[in-house]
Predict the 3D structure of the following.
Amino acid sequence: MKKILVVGGVAGGASAAARLRRHCEHDEIIIFEKGPHVSFSNCCLPYHLSGVVPTAEELVLMSPEKFSTQYKIDARVNNEVMSINRENKTISVKNTQTNEVFTESYDKLILSPGAKPIIPPIPGLDKVNVFSIRNVVDIDKVKRFIDNSKAKNITVIGGGFIGVEVMENLHKAGCKVTLIEAMDQVMKPFDYPMAQILHKEIYDKGVTLIVDDKVNSFKENKVILSSKKEIDADVVIMSIGVKPETDLAIQADLNIGKTGAIKVNQNYQTNDADIYAVGDVIEVYNYLYHDSYQLALAGPAQKQARAVADHIHGMSIDNRGYISSSVVKVFEYNAACTGLSAAEIKLRNLNIEFEMVKIIPNDQVGLMPFANVAHFQLIYEIPTGRILGAQAIGKGNIDKRIDVIATVIKFGGTIYDLKDLELCYAPPFGTAKDIVNYAGYVATNLMNNDFKQVHCFNIRQLVNSGACIVDVREVVEYERSHINEALNVPLSKLRERMSEIPKDLPVYLHCRSGQRSYNAVLALQHYGYKNVFNISGGFMGLCFFEYFNDKTLGRDPIVTDYNFD
């Protein structure tokens, strides 16, 4: 019989305790949670603001009583672990309601205290009603304050997962919301061109989205930005990031890794073999670039918790590292990503040569009433074809496609494997050549040098330099909207009008999404054209990329009008 103590009663801690009980009925298992709730749905917190989750109580999944009766686990809420005595194998605990301090011995100790919101010491912080969101108490405070004060002007600072979800749910609740992000885009796991789709959606829904501008200070119910803009704010919600709760680990002289989180080995043990750590408080191994990083996601935390419980009971651990797969809902769009982004490869100075595929196919057969386009980006390594990452944004079932890519990455798959995948097909669910198959075809064509491409972020410069851009859509499409000064030679007329296209200049071709222009590129190559490029994502991809900055920066568009379908 062992005595196992768990510090932290949310995703990692609660999961570890439950798994431990399934392994052994006789071990003594105690959870210490400094807050009033254990095992609450952390990821659902923002959805209480809009009423999708009607009451704060519904966010709590388990109670101490249920832990006791169903699992024979002693879950102690309002109990804060103050220190660890490794030599005596005890912890010091404070009951936050009675202020009583007591010690508890352990055979094994699991640390899962999570991470705390970062609130920098910005001047004038006391001049505004500031909130952060970490637990049920926090979200209940925000909701009650907004409801009771009738606050309407809400500023959310930080455009990561929590900030975007809070923004959306406050907007749905009828609040006037401003979202401020110091970097040049929201949702940093996505590459900048993909993030523009989300920027457009947020902007179109009436949220004031401010990027590339930092909060400088606060005045009475106002946020002051570096640009000198002043934003009215009855409520300010800080969501600029989290910091691992490492105080206990530092006090106990446990090793802290280079990322600032607790360093653990392949079995999630600290430098003390009897102390484990899981969740947001640790750094993990990245499967793709072979280094440590922080990963604040619930799925990995629960996998780590299960592994720790297994290891304590003598089972082997299969720790293959992590690749960061995630999904978020942004109003009508779903956005998912996995693995590396192009920006991360460059930011980390990874010695990887890579190429990107950007396609915009339908997620179902086009005749189906609920078919939508899906913006899909694939990143792969040259020359191996190893898949490094993918991103998808659309109104339909895009998480399925990213789940497929995540699976292929974890199995060491390549672009050639994508071509060969046999996936479910029926018109209401997908297409016979699924999005991920299609991405594999395009990638292998690029790898074989069958054609050359340029991306949407290159086009403004090409237009300004007077490059030869050929629009191969039909005349009616061109007349609706087109790139400034583009030559219209429809694919249906290409062979009879080929003489209009110069052979001695680089030529950049596009259609709606890139499919027809790809065929045009191949046709021109057969007729001796050597310097022709397909514009990936086509006119629709370009419109999504340009729109938000055109609208918010007041710059001249490079298109006569936008076309998003």
Notes: The chain has a mean pLDDT of 96. The domain at 453-553 is CATH 3.40.250.10 (Oxidized Rhodanese; domain 1). The CA atoms of residues 253 and 326 lie 33 Å apart.
